[in-house]
């Protein structure tokens, strides 16, 4: 009896060992005859991954994405993904179909053999990387708008953001259509890439426009950009006093306080050292124009300053008033090329003789022109009765007699003298003598005729 029991136990142990060995043998012969391959796929296209496994008996062949099993459902979105299985002569065949690929389909895919009883993974294929090629969403790039008011000298950071896609996009800043290469940094956060530009602002940046351009190697014709608002750089006033130098005694002199500022100047103030009398100066309503009515030689050397103030600060500038009896002499004294010390006595005599001849010839020409041309024309202009018509067709006689008026008194040769600053469109500083004229009716012919005289000293 004991012998039979021992024999039965030995048989059971042997059967158990044989079963274990058979299982090991089955697991060992599972071979991937074909493995899935990855690739770069454009957004919206279709793709299929396939594998062939030999040696399977009761195992299940399935698919994993990023180490997670793909479970098919009837959801509309999951309907894009399907799995087809078939048995071939060399093993089990499985294909994973993905239609209308979206960005979330990117990842690592594996063909996996699992046990039907335990659900344990028995064997995996090599990983297949699927890369989705796409352009960023239409909303990108996105530019961050700078602060509405920036003080000159402060640090400003401009940001341009886009999506992280494959292939990566290229972002680039331009300043007034010029590429910016300095102060650029790249950062990545979540699913966004940001291009940052850091600048130290100056007044020259006021009104400058920055743009961010986006390119992609996926499409050579692709280009998008976003534009930032013009920079509003605020700075203290810059002053330049426009004036005539030197000025003539007794002639009204005008000084103009020219400023450049952002925001605009809110207040102007003029001061003088030594202080000028109130009755000798006039400052207009804006505060920018300073008039010195009757300059004197004693006022030469006076420091006249203009102070301009805006919300950022105030700045002052001054000039030294120069009053000279004769401009031409002072200018000639400062011109080394007009020195007479190097002129010989012989050349002076020749110049005198030449001047005499020129004066005689010029006088003769003037007399001929006056007698032959100017006198008839002048007589015609005075004597002819110029007629014109008003809107109703009635003839209107134009007045012919002129007089000049200053301060309500009719004078024959009234002269208004002024020293004016440089004309903005030229580089000429001038002392101008100016007279005005008015028309009167023909019945005032008893008044003396006058003329308009303009003299530039």
**CATH-defined superfamily of the largest domain:** Immunoglobulins
Helicity, as a percent range: 10-25%
Secondary structure tally, helices: 3
Q: Rounded to an integer, what's the Rg over CA atoms?
A: 49 Å
**Morphology:** elongated
Q: What is the CATH architecture assignment of the largest domain?
A: Sandwich
Written overview of the protein:
With 457 residues, the chain is of the alpha+beta class. It folds into four domains: 30-133, Immunoglobulins (Immunoglobulin-like), CATH 2.60.40; 142-231, Sandwich (Immunoglobulin-like); 237-329, Immunoglobulins (Immunoglobulin-like, Sandwich), CATH 2.60.40.10; 399-456, no CATH class. Helix content is 16%, strand content 40%. The chain is built from three helices and 34 strands. It has helices at 2-28, 327-333, 345-383; strands spanning 31-34, 39-42, 47-54, 60-65, 68-69, 81-88, 91-98, 107-114, 121-124, 128-133, 142-143, 150-151, 155-163, 170-175, 178-179, 184-189, 192-200, 210-215, 223-227, 233-242, 252-262, 267-273, 281-283, 289-292, 303-309, 314-320, 387-389, 395-397, 401-406, 409-411, 416-420, 430-434, 438-440, 455-456. The strands form eight sheets. Strands 12, 20, 21, 23, 24, 31, 32 and 34 form an eight-stranded mixed beta sheet that branches. Strands 2, 4, 5, 8, 9 and 10 form a six-stranded mixed beta sheet that branches. Strands 1-3-7-6 form a four-stranded antiparallel beta sheet, with no helix packed on it. It is elongated and about 130 Å long. The N and C termini lie far apart (152 Å). Mean pLDDT is 78; it is low at 15-28, 329-351, 400-416 and 442-457.
């Amino acid at each position: 009896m004991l012998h039979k029991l021992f024999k039965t136990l030995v048989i059971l142990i042997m059967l158990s060992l044989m079963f274990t060995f058979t299982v090991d043998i089955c697991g060992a012969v599972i071979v991937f005859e074909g493995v899935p391959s990855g690739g770069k796929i454009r957004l919206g296209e279709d793709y299929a991954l396939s594998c062939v496994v030999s040696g399977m008996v009761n195992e299940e062949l399935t698919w994993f994405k990023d180490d997670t099993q793909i479970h098919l459902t009837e959801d509309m979105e999951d309907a894009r993904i399907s799995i087809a299985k078939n048995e071939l002569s060399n093993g089990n065949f499985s294909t994973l179909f993905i239609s209308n690929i979206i960005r979330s389909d990117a990842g690592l895919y594996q063909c996996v053999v699992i046990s039907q009883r335990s659900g344990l993974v028995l064997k995996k294929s090599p990983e297949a990387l699927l890369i989705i090629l796409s352009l960023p969403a239409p909303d990108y790039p996105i530019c961050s708008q700078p602060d509405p008011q920036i003080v000159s000298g402060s640090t400003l950071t401009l940001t341009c953001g886009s999506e992280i896609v494959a292939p990566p996009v290229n972002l680039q800043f331009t300043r007034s259509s010029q590429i910016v290469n300095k102060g650029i940094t790249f950062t990545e956060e979540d699913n966004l890439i940001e291009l940052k530009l850091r600048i130290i602002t100056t007044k020259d940046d006021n009104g400058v426009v920055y743009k961010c351009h986006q390119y992609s190697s996926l499409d050579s014709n692709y280009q998008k950009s976003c534009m930032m608002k013009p920079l509003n750089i605020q700075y203290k006033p810059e002053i330049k006093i426009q004036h005539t130098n030197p000025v003539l005694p007794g002639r009204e002199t005008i000084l103009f306080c020219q400023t450049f500022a952002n925001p605009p100047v809110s207040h102007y103030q003029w001061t003088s050292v030594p202080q000028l009398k109130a009755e000798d100066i006039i400052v207009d309503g804006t505060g920018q124009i300073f008039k010195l009515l009757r300059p004197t030689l004693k006022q030469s050397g006076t420091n006249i300053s203009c102070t301009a103030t805006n919300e950022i600060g105030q700045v002052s500038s001054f000039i030294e008033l120069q009053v000279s009896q004769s401009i031409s002499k002072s200018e000639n004294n400062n011109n080394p090329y007009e020195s007479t010390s190097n002129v010989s006595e012989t050349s002076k005599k020749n110049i005198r003789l030449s001047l005499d001849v020129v004066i005689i010839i010029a006088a003769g020409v003037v007399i001929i022109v006056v007698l032959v041309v100017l006198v008839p024309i002048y007589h015609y202009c005075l004597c002819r009765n110029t007629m014109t018509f008003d809107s109703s067709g009635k003839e209107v006689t134009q007045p012919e007699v002129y007089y000049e008026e200053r301060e309500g008194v009719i004078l024959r040769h009234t002269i208004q003298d002024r020293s004016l600053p440089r004309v903005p469109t030229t580089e000429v500083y001038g002392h101008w003598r100016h007279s005005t004229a008015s028309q009167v009716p023909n019945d005032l012919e008893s008044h003396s005729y006058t003329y308009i005289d303009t003299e530039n000293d």
